[in-house]
Each structure stands twice: as structure tokens, then as C-alpha cells.
Design brief:
The longest helix is centred in the last third of the chain and has 81 residues, at 139-219. It contains six helices and six strands, in the order αββαβαββαβαα. With 245 residues, the protein is of the alpha+beta class. It folds into two domains: 2-137, Beta-Lactamase, CATH 3.30.450; 145-229.
Length: 245
């Protein structure tokens, strides 16, 4: 983008663009000022561009300031395509610190290797010029997460109450069905007991009848016994001859 801007007549790309007519900020200056505005609007958040080769006008604030920044710079010099991050306490707040490498391109080298104020003039394409660092406090995210979890727990609690109510209704219905089945079984058992008693009485009567039949059968013919059993006891008295030979 910088190389395209330089081809337009009247446009100059420089870090002190505010003092020159028709000038625009170079990428590093643009990121620095954008980070300052974002940091000013979001308490605790920070976007910072730094290097171990800062320009003289940024010597005081442009270099690494703490262990994280030095560790990130050393790591990204070794692994420029990766990112470096940690979770740390910053001013009493749990914060996420993230860093990625700023890699030199051909358009960057043309300026950095020729600018009279450049602290290093032997940059090559692919070199790590500096680091872009972002700090984001986590308390807001934790708060939002807790609110979301609270809402989830409330929803789950409501669903649990509904499920429990439904379960209670089902259990009550099952108890009613069990009572009804118990009542029917009891009634049926009583009916079967009564039927068994009637059957027992019938068996006793049959036993008595067959007992008499056996007694009479020793002395009377079958026709006589059947005739006696078919008619009610009593009636006319008639002589009976028994053949006991």
C-alpha cells in the first residue's frame, strides 16, 4: 500500500505527516496512533508497537519495557510466523498479553535502510523489525461469561422444575393405576376363593354320592342304584329283595 501511495503525485509517506502538506503516516506511525486511540477509549486495553531498534524520536517509549516484551521479541525473532502470548496480572487485573512479529518487506527496507535517522541500515526482507503487542483485561470477559452462565443456570433450573413436575404427575398417575390394579386383583382373588369354596362343596357332594353308589353297588345292581339316585329320597315304601349270595 505504501509503494502504491508513493506513485501518486503530491503524496508523501512519512512519520511526521502532520507537518507536511499532502503527507500520510507510514504503517508504523499509523499503528502507533491507532493503538493510542483504542487504548484511550477502552480502559485497560493497550495496543503498542515496539522494537529494539527504535527511531531516535521514539527512543524513550519505543523499546522493550518489561520481561514479556523482551521474551516476545526473542521468541518471534526465532519463530517469526508464530505468535507469543501469556495471561498475567497487570495492575491487579488478570489480562491477556499477545504479541506478533512485524516482518520487513521490500517497501519497508527502502525507507529503513536509507533514512538518515534509522538506527539500523542493513535490514533484509523477512527480518523481524519489531513487535505488535496487545493487552486485553479479562475481567470484562469473565463478567460477561458469568452473566451468561447465570442465565444458563436459571434456564436449566426452570427446565429442571418443569421436568420434576412432570415426573411427579407421572408417578402420581402410576400410583393410581397400581391402586386400581391392586383393588381388581383383590376382588378377583375373593371371587376365586368363593368359587373354590363352591367347588369344594360340589366335590363333597359328589364324593358322598359316589360313596353311596359304591356301598349300594355291592348289594344292588347298577340299574337300581341309578334309579335311586335319580329320584329324591323318601316316597312310597316298597319291599326290596337283596341277593347276598
Amino acid at each position: 500500500m505504501v509503494s502504491r501511495a508513493k506513485t501518486v503525485d503530491g503524496i508523501t509517506v512519512t512519520h511526521n505527516y502532520t507537518t507536511k502538506k499532502g503527507a500520510i503516516p507510514n504503517p508504523a506511525t499509523y499503528v502507533i496512533e491507532l493503538g493510542s486511540r483504542i487504548s484511550a477509549n477502552d480502559t485497560g486495553a493497550l495496543i503498542r508497537l515496539y522494537s529494539d531498534y527504535p527511531f531516535p524520536n521514539r527512543q524513550a517509549e519505543g523499546g522493550p519495557k518489561d520481561d514479556f516484551e523482551w521474551d516476545a521479541l526473542r521468541f518471534l525473532r526465532k519463530y517469526p510466523t508464530q505468535s507469543f502470548f501469556r495471561q498475567e496480572q497487570i495492575q491487579g487485573r488478570s489480562s491477556f498479553r499477545y504479541a506478533e512479529a512485524i516482518i520487513m518487506e521490500s517497501s519497508c527496507i527502502a525507507c529503513h535502510n536509507s533514512h538518515p535517522d534509522s538506527p539500523k541500515m542493513d535490514w533484509k526482507v523477512g527480518d523481524v523489525r519489531g513487535v505488535l503487542k496487545i493487552i486485553q483485561p479479562l475481567d470484562k470477559f469473565v463478567g460477561h461469561t458469568q452473566m451468561g452462565l447465570r442465565s444458563t443456570f436459571i434456564t436449566l433450573g426452570g427446565l429442571s422444575v418443569l421436568a420434576l413436575s412432570g415426573l411427579i404427575l407421572v408417578i402420581g398417575r402410576l400410583r393410581q393405576i397400581a391402586k386400581e390394579l391392586t383393588r381388581r386383583v383383590t376382588e378377583r382373588t375373593a371371587e376365586l376363593a368363593e368359587a373354590n369354596q363352591d367347588l369344594e362343596k360340589s366335590n363333597q357332594i359328589i364324593s358322598q354320592i359316589f360313596g353311596r353308589y359304591l356301598i349300594f353297588g355291592r348289594y344292588l345292581s347298577k340299574e337300581v342304584v341309578d334309579n335311586l339316585l335319580e329320584k329324591p329320597w323318601g316316597g312310597d315304601k316298597r319291599p326290596v329283595t337283596l341277593d347276598i349270595s
